[in-house]
């Protein structure tokens, strides 16, 4: 399939018109950030429609650099099943199944209602399977850093999943079925 002949279609968008909730976020942090002593990663799940397999085109995240080195690792990963604990869901991001990875730099440093949407193009356009949940997760590569992932628009009632893992509680994913972070996925078909 020639990518330049494909049609782009948004398949997940809890931040229509680049609007997101500026009063809430979850942060990826390194253990030395503000002396907190914890490493934390954040993830958002999205469901590929049942209408057919697609190629990843791009995605947009609402981000805010909070401090330290202005770098962020972003991963597209598959999902794995697990035994639910403490009221979490029976699935989680599978970071042993990385589909594509990016290193972002120069993340916006000012919090603005529409100025912090960071656009990321896929370099390899991986095929993602219909009716499957995939995950985008963020992690800071430097110990003294933090990047906030802004929350999806208030009132968004579409499907959504959020996950976090924290070194203080064993660095295992805890998954929540809610709208979660502001993330737009554009597929090619």
What does this structure look like?
It contains no helices and 13 strands. It has strands at 8-12, 21-29, 40-47, 54-67, 71-81, 91-105, 117-121, 127-128, 133-139, 146-151, 161-166, 174-176, 183-188. The chain is globular, with a radius of gyration of 16 Å. The N and C termini lie close together (9 Å).
Quick summary:
The chain has strands spanning 8-12, 21-29, 40-47, 54-67, 71-81, 91-105, 117-121, 127-128, 133-139, 146-151, 161-166, 174-176, 183-188. Helix content is 0%, strand content 51%.
- What is the strand content? over 45%
Q: How would you sum up the global shape?
A: globular
**Sheet with the most strands?**
7 strands, antiparallel
Terminal Cα span: 9 Å
DSSP summary, beta strand count: 13
Q: What proportion of the residues is helical, as a percent range? A: under 10%
Query: What is the mean predicted local confidence, pLDDT?
Result: 88
What is the alpha-carbon Rg in Å? 16 Å
Helix and strand string, N-terminal first?
EEEEEEEEEEEEE
SS summary, helix count: 0
């Amino acid at each position: 399939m020639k990518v330049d002949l494909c049609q782009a279609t948004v398949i997940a968008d809890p931040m229509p018109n680049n609007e997101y909730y500026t009063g809430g976020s979850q942060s990826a942090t390194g253990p030395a950030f503000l002396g907190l002593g914890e490493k934390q990663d954040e993830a958002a799940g999205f469901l590929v429609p049942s209408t057919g397999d697609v190629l990843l085109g791009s995605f947009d995240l609402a981000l805010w650099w909070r401090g330290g080195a202005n770098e962020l690792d972003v991963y597209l990963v598959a999902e794995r099943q697990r035994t639910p604990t403490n009221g979490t869901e029976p699935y989680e991001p599978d970071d042993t199944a990385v589909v594509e990875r990016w290193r972002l730099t120069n993340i916006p440093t000012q919090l603005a209602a529409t100025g912090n949407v960071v656009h990321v193009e896929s370099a390899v356009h991986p095929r993602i399977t219909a009716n499957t949940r995939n995950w985008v997760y963020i992690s800071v590569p430097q110990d003294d850093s933090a990047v906030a992932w802004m929350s999806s628009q208030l009132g968004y009632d579409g499907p959504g999943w959020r996950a976090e893992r924290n070194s203080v509680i064993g660095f295992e994913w805890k998954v929540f079925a809610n709208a979660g972070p502001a993330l737009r996925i554009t597929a090619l078909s």
